[in-house]
């Protein structure tokens, strides 16, 4: 059958290794995965009784803590009412209500919601809408401008507009061409402006970016003023503006969306991760009326021919509605501000520490670089593995991006738990310096 002999395998980790291939994991050298049997609040409970504070919100999705009873109850009710229905020719209340409630909290120009399954597909849809917008309006444009070190997901379109890295190198021959400008971090702002100026033409279909913070690229932060300027320039050549808020959405940056820090509004937005509070997979692409209208026609060829079997899954939409209730509550909004304030104090403290560089913070996200030498500061470095394991041993789940350490916690994290995370970082710094 191609299967190895599975008899005699005892632990969940061993059983996993016999049959499962994990994401972003070199299966030859990675240690056995840690089996988690329960989650509650910020805590993950392992099979062996160890607990971990989930300081990265399980890949940045979990906003209200694990197994939140309010979300669980709403999803359980929905599960007994309507678990799924084909979304072409049919609709349902959770999808309608979610769109009705999302649109008023998005930038004011957003007009329609298109559902998909995750962050990558939310980006794919935005790209397809952008390219087809130009196709439908009879003025096809081919170019996309993106930021260096961007990460927009792992499907082919999302990979194409991501920065070129180990993640994309085997696929480069199959990716459409994209032009890059430097991420406009302080010190490189003018370079980004100049580069954009030289690339802009009437052939640019879209300009895509992660507003204010590039996540997987290393929690790289840049200022709203420069992004406003770049958007203004791209827009003056007609380019459609795509804000990938898959990571930055739903309160992460201190405002509901990173786009709310900007005076320029995007034409298209990609959302996922925190959308369901991290409960279920769901993606959203929001767009303006101008884009939507370019697809409305008596000519069926102008249809957006895109959809997934699980488009607008009612359970996921219900989870998103419940998550939105929690997110908009005073309690969560206060928590977001509380975490931001505490991060700012710890950030100040970190700047004094030897071995720490480039401390940065935006809302609930705090990041800094371990001052590793250039040999070690790559995706493949060992300092990353050392830090990851050391923090796990302290009961804290953080997943460094190369030599970049960051905290991106669920909003329900208490002051005491934050202190535990900060203390673990302090011990790590002592350990490696
Ligand atoms: N866009 C951004 C900004 C992301 O951070 C991610 C995931 O980390 C994605 C897109 C892809 O989302 P997903 O992993 O849900 O496909």
The CATH homologous superfamily of the largest domain corresponds to Type I PLP-dependent aspartate aminotransferase-like (Major domain)
Proportion of helical residues: 25-40%
| Alpha-carbon distance between the two ends | 50 Å
Return the CATH topology of the largest domain: Aspartate Aminotransferase, domain 2
CATH architecture of the largest domain: 3-Layer(aba) Sandwich
Query: How would you classify the helix and strand content by structural class?
Result: alpha/beta
**Order of SSEs:** HEEEHHHEHEHEHEEEHEEEHHHEEHEEH
Q: Detail the poorly predicted runs.
A: 374-379
Bound molecules: pyridoxal-5'-phosphate
For the biggest β-sheet, the strand order reads 4-12-11-10-7-5-6
CATH class category label of the largest domain: Alpha Beta
β-strand number = 16
Mean pLDDT: 95
Helical element count? 13
For the sheet with most strands, the description reads:
7 strands, mixed
Beta-strand percent range: 15-25%
Count of the domains: 2
Using only CA atoms, what is the Rg? 22 Å
Tertiary shape = globular
